[in-house]
């Protein structure tokens, strides 16, 4: 808190009053600190793939390109790093659009059950063989207002994390529960979990519970931050539960479209 104290002088230099301005600078400072941290994070995130690529390209131009075995491997590394940078920049652009409220949700009335099945089907086709997808979804239709593209992104981010952090032979469970005014959606895995004190932070930009592992798996550290923004734009909430060594559950809510009651005018 900053306090400015002024004395008001009237004619004859006589004190006629006092003004005290007390302003809360902690919020301003916090915003400024977060902005600096963000710029530093972005720079770091971009520098890492770039320096990796530079050294592989140097090795290639120093003669590794002639080696039939090494050259394709080195090229693959540079390709992967390029892909990661593209993902990162796309994620950043999206977050920046959301920060500037420079986007529109195209919401439509969607039966979440069939929509969710469709999303899981896509993963079913591309998953490692030993991972099991378990759908605990009700049979009756459940309607919500959704921007399908944006919600697909939310689910893609959550489910691909569940896949990335699943152990061999792990099961990923999809759950849907109708509550009074909202729908509760959850995705659980049997992976390494997230420790209690890190649970809320995983929704922060660039936060990674396990840096080395996230990088190795090609993560940008922005997936859950984007999911959070998009769920909140749908007037929902998102959070995580976890038992270390046992698994993680990501949960979120969406407001339900209430059925019209008949006979009530
Ligand atoms: P990343 O691209 O690193 O996966 P996210 O924003 O998607 O970034 O997730 C942030 C961090 O949260 C991850 O780096 C990881 O440490 C942790 N995390 C997310 N989902 C899971 C999960 N299902 N199991 C364990 N840790 C997870």
From TrEMBL:
Residues 1-37 form the PAC domain. Signal peptide: none annotated. Residues 41-258 form the Histidine kinase domain. It is found in: Cell membrane. Coiled coil: none annotated. This is histidine kinase. The lineage of its organism: Bacteria, Bacillati, Bacillota, Bacilli, Bacillales. The chain holds residues 343 to 607 of 607 of the full protein.
């Amino acid at each position: 808190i900053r306090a400015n104290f002024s004395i008001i002088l009237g004619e004859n230099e006589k004190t006629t009053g006092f003004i005290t301005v007390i302003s809360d600078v902690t919020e301003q400072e916090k915003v400024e600190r977060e902005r600096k941290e963000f710029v530093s994070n972005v720079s770091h995130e971009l520098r890492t793939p770039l320096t990796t690529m530079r050294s592989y390209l140097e090795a290639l131009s120093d003669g590794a390109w002639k080696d039939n075995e090494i050259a394709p491997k080195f090229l693959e590394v540079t390709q992967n790093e390029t892909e990661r940078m593209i993902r990162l920049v796309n994620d950043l652009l999206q977050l920046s659009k959301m920060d500037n409220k420079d986007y529109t949700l195209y919401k439509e009335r969607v039966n979440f059950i069939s929509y969710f099945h469709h999303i899981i089907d896509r993963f079913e086709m591309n998953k490692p063989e030993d991972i099991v997808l378990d759908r605990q979804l009700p049979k009756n239709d459940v309607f919500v207002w959704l921007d399908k593209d944006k919600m697909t992104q939310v689910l893609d981010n959550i489910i691909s994390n569940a896949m990335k952090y699943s152990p061999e032979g792990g099961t990923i469970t999809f759950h849907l529960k109708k509550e009074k005014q909202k729908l509760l959606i959850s995705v659980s895995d049997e992976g390494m979990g997230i420790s209690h004190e890190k649970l809320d932070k995983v929704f922060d930009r660039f936060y990674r519970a396990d840096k080395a592992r996230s990088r190795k798996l090609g993560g940008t550290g922005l997936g859950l931050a984007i999911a959070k923004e998009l769920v909140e734009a749908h007037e929902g909430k998102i959070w995580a539960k976890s038992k270390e060594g046992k698994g993680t559950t990501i949960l979120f809510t969406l407001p339900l479209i209430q059925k019209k009651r008949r006979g009530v005018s």
